[in-house]
From TrEMBL:
This is Sulfotransferase. Gene3D superfamilies: P-loop containing nucleotide triphosphate hydrolases. It holds the Pfam family Sulfotransfer_4. It comes from Aequorivita aurantiaca.
Amino acid sequence: MLLKNNTHKIFCIGLNKTGTTSLGMFLEQQGSLVESQRKGELLLKDYFDRNFNAIINHCKKSHSVVYQDVPFSLPLTYPHLDNAFPESKFILTIRENSDVWFESILKFHSDFYNNGKIPTYESLKNSKYVYPGWSWKLMHDVFINDKSEMYSKNEFVDVYENHVESVKNYFKNNPDKLLIIDVSKNDDLLKLCKWLKIKTDKSSFPHISSKDILSLNYNCKFLKG
């Protein structure tokens, strides 16, 4: 079974707020060993140092099959993972459109970092998520060019759309390695199961409320460090 075969890694490479948590939870429910999200988040410095060998070595030493979220989902990582794990598969999660994705990440970050208001440089810098400064480093180096203009829709949408197109272009000559899904669509659950050759009695992906995510009180093992 693909989900339990450690030689066949599965990398979920959709950006944050594209349903990566729901996807990871579903795969875990099917018996897959999903890597701890916190262990991945601690590799952020290696990502920004472009030390992809450290990320690859982490995956080689891990017994997990599925990897999602930072740094595996960030732009530039997936080609290195593909080269290191030629039998791997990649799942790109997307939203209905760029506007829906931006509104989702803006609302979540506003609630998570700044009590419902658009996050500021200070609120991101002072956040203790993972460790102080982690959140600002991620957002600044991936999405925000100027701290005086926080959460510019154009900047965020450009990153999202460029990432989606870059992934599509990279795998265009090897389409069997990539699956693109929208977790809000039940048909895409069937598409995923067929692609991974698994059977399930589920009719939809797990729905995880913002309240559950914000509280960080998950029952899903892969979110615990």
